[in-house]
Write a structure and sequence with these properties.
This protein is of the alpha/beta class. The protein has a single domain, classed as Rossmann fold (3-Layer(aba) Sandwich), CATH 3.40.50.150. Strands 1, 2, 3, 4, 5, 6, 7 and 8 form an 8-stranded mixed beta sheet that branches. α4 links the parallel β2 and β3. α8 packs antiparallel against α9. The chain is globular.
Length: 241
């Protein structure tokens, strides 16, 4: 994974900037537990350990790996101790070590995503799960357009695109959460370049875009609809990639 996607730089604010409502986290964890049934689970890109903790609380044996040392420190603060630092394209595990794997909010960050998937299915015997997430409406497309990116750059592949290449065996009912979003609070996060797709935007381009966005959206708020869908593949099916 390229160094720019090492999340050490945002480990202290990750929970704030990628906020996951507790009811959504619990709902997704229940779906994963239902799909897997039990066993040993590999959490690819474990980050701060939100999903690993929720699955461990449901009796699954979870081992997490992440490139970021600081993110793993946060995960250890949740009482998780089966953690390793390393590259997702070169996993330090033997073939078939795990029954299942989760790769949540990580596939789109890995340029060598095919190598990552090959490694996932090498160490996993049964199921691999990921999530598809959407936001309606969202400020980000306006930011991307203003910095000269009509479409947000995607280093890897997202769950929906992967499902288009390999048919999943399960799609769980979508979980939807609606909340009031204030433009200023989100613009403050954008201004600090807290999202990985912003990290290579030149400062002068970024600053100009932020001035324009603040002028366009001053004092505005709206109902933000966020939707998550858990998608599950058989590991053997992903070996066709």
């Amino acid at each position: 994974m390229p160094a720019r996607f090492n999340f050490d730089r945002v480990a202290d604010v990750y929970e704030e900037t990628r906020r996951l409502p507790p009811l959504v986290l619990e709902g997704l964890a229940e779906q994963v537990a239902e799909a897997f049934g039990g066993g040993r689970v590999f959490d690819a890109g474990a980050g701060t350990g939100r999903y690993a903790r929720a699955l461990a609380d449901r009796g699954l044996q979870v081992v997490g790996l992440d490139l970021s040392r600081k993110m793993l420190e946060r995960a250890r603060g949740r009482g998780l101790d089966r953690l390793a630092q390393g590259e997702l394209t070169q996993l330090p595990f033997r073939d078939g070590t795990f029954d299942h794997a989760i790769a949540i909010h990580i596939l789109h960050l890995v340029p060598e995503w095919q190598a990552m998937v090959r490694e996932l299915v090498r160490v996993t015997r049964t199921y691999v799960a990921s999530t598809r997430e959407t936001h309606e409406p969202h400020i980000r497309p306006s930011y991307d357009e203003k910095v000269g990116r009509p479409e947000r750059p995607k280093a890897g592949i997202d769950a929906e695109d992967l499902a288009g290449r390999v048919s999943p065996v399960l799609r769980f009912p979508r979980i939807t959460f609606v909340e009031r979003q204030n433009a200023e609070s989100y613009l403050d996060l954008l201004a600090k370049k807290t999202f990985s797709s912003q990290w290579d935007v030149p400062d002068e381009v970024h600053d100009r875009a932020m001035r324009e966005l603040r002028a366009d959206l001053a004092g505005k708020s709206w109902n933000l609809k966020r939707t998550w869908e858990l998608v599950v593949w058989r590991a053997e099916d992903l070996r066709t990639l």
